[in-house]
Amino acid sequence: MLRTDEQKKAVASPLRLELLSLFIDRKALSVAQMAERMGRSATGIHYHVRVLENAGILRRVGRQRSGRRPEALYIPVADVFKMEQERDAPADDAVKTLSTAFRMAERDMRAALNDPGTKRSGPYRNIFGARIPCRLSKKDLAELNRLLREIEKMLSTVHKTHEPSKDDAFVSLTVALMPLRNREAQA
Known about the structure:
Distance between the termini: 43 Å
Strand order of the largest sheet: 1-2
Number of strands: 2
Order of helices and strands: HHHHEEHH
CATH superfamily of the domain at 1-116: Winged helix-like DNA-binding domain superfamily/Winged helix DNA-binding domain
Oligomer: single chain
Largest sheet: 2 strands, antiparallel
Low-confidence stretches: none
Shape: globular
């Protein structure tokens, strides 16, 4: 759970969210490996890794030899990070983090739509997008939240226990549920 202002600000950066997404296979990475996977310089990545480490989101788990000097290896402290918004707290950090996640989703969606290997239908479909505004009863809202918790639990469990294979599909799920205000239909 991301609770401190430092943690919330750390994940509000698009680059830092992208850094965290590099750990999908749960293997420790050096700054040089992260930079290579992102197509960026290690010098530019190092600052952001330090911010995530200082916020307690990444931790050093060892060292590896690379050339003449050892490199620190990092791994996230959790497989899934959550941020609860306090009722009276300013929404800026939460909105910035979600905006970042949705910009990343937009970039990934654009790339997927241009990829001939994207599966658009069938049981192995790996692309889906929808925005469904609707009116829900309290019972329906409770059921929706139960299903969302089940999806989160399934993805978290698979992420922790799955042994990677060449047939795996790398996917990302970005979801937002929020009340719509002042949208009531006029009678």
